[in-house]
Amino acid sequence: MNTCPYCGVVTQPEDHFCRNCGNRLHPATPSASRPALLIVCGENGKDLLEYPLEKLKVSIGRATSCDLLVTKDTLISLHHATLSYENGRYVLRDEHSANGTFVNGEQIEAATPYVLQDRSHIGIGDHEFIFRLSQ
User: Fold this and answer.
1) Among 53, 81, 102, 113, which residue's beta carbon has the most beta carbons within 10 A?
2) Sign of dihedral through CA atoms 125, 63, 47, 93?
3) DSSP secondary structure letters along the chain
């Protein structure tokens, strides 16, 4: 019997993520050993922070309940966007934000899933993120 190392709930052998807390379970294959990343870029183009996507769903916004909290950017909504791992791929959704979410310079439609590719540039408020698949 397997259990989630984060919340202790019983998991199934085929589960890659905990169905209770959403954290990534110990990888079953070496290729899944490193999660995808969101890289926060600075104004000078340098990487400021790497945020590993270790949960099935990562919320982005100014609300303290968000996983990726960006408090000082007033162009970002409280619950701006969600990045989810669905059917073997990463999907970005704008959560009806006031100022929109952009991928590679194009605004995505609110609540509509947008499948991310490696090195996609995501614009949220004054922030730029780069999505990177694990290597």
Assistant:
1) 81
2) negative
3) -EE-TTT--EE-TT-SB-TTT-BBPPPSSGGGSS--EEEEEPTTS-EEEEEE--BSEEEEESSTT-SEE--S-TTS-TT-EEEEEETTEEEEEE-S-SS-EEETTEEPPBT--EE--TT-EEEETTEEEEEE---
CB atoms within 10 A of CB 51: 17
Q: 15-24, 37-46, 57-66 — which one is most confidently predicted on average?
A: 57-66
Confirm if 15 and 9 have CB atoms less than 8 A apart: no
pLDDT digits (tens, 9 = 90+) for 67-120: 999 988 999 999 999 999 988 899 999 999 999 999 999 999 999 999 999 999
How far is 127 from 75, CA to CA, in rounded Å? 9
Q: Say if strands 106-107 and 89-94 run parallel, antiparallel, or are unpaired.
A: unpaired
